[in-house]
Amino acid sequence: MKPRCRHVCSRIPIRLAGVGLALTLSVYGSPVPTAVAPKPLLVDLDAPPPAKMELAVRKALRAPLLTVVDKPGPSPTGDPHDYVSYARYFWPDPARPGGLPFLRHDGRVNGEQVNQGDRGRLGRFVGEVSLLSLAWSQEHRTDCARRAGDWIRAWLLTPATRMNPNLDYGQVRLGHNHNRGNPTGVLDARGLADVVDALRLLHGSPALTPAEESAVRRWFMRYDEWLDHSPQARREHEARNNHGSWYLVQAVAIARYLGRDDEARALCLEDERRIAWQIAPDGSQPLELARQDALSYSVFNLQAQLRLARLARGLGIDLWRYTAPSGASLEKALDSIRPYNEEPSRWPGRQLARLRPGYLNPLLAQAAALGAAGS
Q1: Which residue of 141, 162, 186, 342 has the smallest Cβ count within 10 Å?
Q2: Last residue of one domain, picked from the residues 161, 193, 210
Q3: Which of 314, 249, 243 is nearest to 285 (CA)?
Q4: 44 in the same domain as 26
């Protein structure tokens, strides 16, 4: 019995004469196509460090498939396939019977209520598919590709478990709007930008058949239509704070996945106005500074903006180096919070959540890469 490679066998690269396809031969002589793989646009941003990658992959391969139909109780909409989540800062009103309508307390997370919804399961889907697709891209691991395919089928294709392609019940505020979703619920699905990047990396892998890939594209076409036309999503698009930034990340990534580069390019150019709205000439972000966790939200908005800059770069648009007529820029915004990276406790504004020293390092690395790419 042949010994089994733990993850990547030794490989000897060869090139077939007259054929534009590179192959490698494993030590067992099995040909493995290695045509130049696409580079990740987003899924590598939250990946574990190389030393922890193997452990993370092993855990991902064992993780159980959970989807929207695995709610802890019956769906409040009557359809278990509806994505349902609850606004994290809303709490029962102690002065009213039943606590309705709930009241907003910025910075105070109602974890018990949030856990009744699907947000955690959607996040797990995004995380597992991103990690597994990266393992396929970097190491050509067929076990990772196949497991990523399992997750994608469960969430987007399998009739018994798939999610309806909308967020009509995202971030419900109990007692408000007939317990339907709110524009802020669009934020919950920001990770779908990573999923479409993963799909790009997985193309041609054992993850999905061509027919399944086509069916997944149809799911995203329906979701993109909802993202473009529903009143809920349109209001989120108009938001001038981090919500609007994350809307653009989703919309641009999905448009690129669907081959709608003109649409994606227009959305990226739209962000130039948003940079002027969001960032003051001194680099501060007034809309995020109004929050109870002002430093966290300033970082959160820049996470979206730098992802968008990465997506825009492939379309010939340099948002990282863009400077608004007012003097505002992403670089200035990052520089304004850089002094607190090693000692977050020195932050002079409001900040309830505790940040670890070095919390800004991933963004600084992304910024350096964006700067180097444009030089």
Answers
A1: 342
A2: 210
A3: 243
A4: no
Q: How far is CA 86 from CA 109, 122, 168, 241, in A?
A: 11, 13, 12, 20
Collapsing DSSP states into helix, strand and coil, what is residue 354?
Answer: coil
Per-residue buried b or exposed e for 202-225, using 16+ beta carbons within 10 Å of the residue's own CB: beebbbbeeeebebbbebbeebbe
One domain, residues 206 and 252: no
CATH code of the domain in which 299 resides: 1.50.10.100
Judge whether 7 and 54 are in contact, CB under 8 Å. Answer: yes
User: Do 196 and 252 share a domain, yes or no?
Assistant: no
CA distance 288 to 279: 10
Q: Using H for helix, E for strand and C for coil, what is the string for 70-107? A: HCCCCCCCCCCCCCEEECCCEECCCCCHHHCCCEECCC
Determine the Cα–Cα distance for residues 158 and 130; give it in Å rounded to an integer: 20
The answer to the question of residue 221 being in a domain is no
pTM of the model: 0.89
Domain holding 268, by residue range, is: 239-375
Compute the Cα dihedral for 183, 187, 189, 194 and give only its sign. positive
The string of pLDDT tens digits covering residues 182-198 is: 999 999 999 999 999 99
**Pair 179, 172: CB distance under 8 Å:** yes
- Domain match, 273 and 173 both: no
Give the SS3 label for residue 169: strand
User: What are the structure tokens assigned to 296, written together?
Assistant: 């966290």
By DSSP bridging, strand 31-33 and strand 84-86 are unpaired
Say what percent of the chain tops pLDDT 70.
90
